[in-house]
Design goal:
With 71 residues, the protein is mostly helical. Helix content is 65%, strand content 0%. The longest helix is centred in the first third of the chain and has 24 residues.
Length: 71
């Protein structure tokens, strides 16, 4: 719609399409990172998610400490 190059309807559709494509590329990129843990916000409450994140971070921290103990 900018400078009347596209109609407003076409511009809205282009934005929606390109936003979906961008989100798909992001997911593809993130899925390659095996250490990323995905949470389903529809299955966990905020409090459950917070506890799960804390548990996973603590577990990772303990693992790092075992590999690299403090002097």
């Amino acid at each position: 719609h900018l400078e009347h190059f596209y109609s407003q309807e076409i511009m809205i559709e282009k934005i929606k399409t390109n936003s979906r494509r961008y989100a798909k590329r992001q997911l593809t990129w993130f899925r390659r990172w095996k250490f990323i843990h995905w949470f389903d916000a529809e299955l966990l409450s905020a409090e459950e998610m917070k506890k799960e994140i804390y548990f996973k971070l603590n577990k990772a921290f303990v693992k790092i400490q075992k590999k690299h103990p403090s002097p």
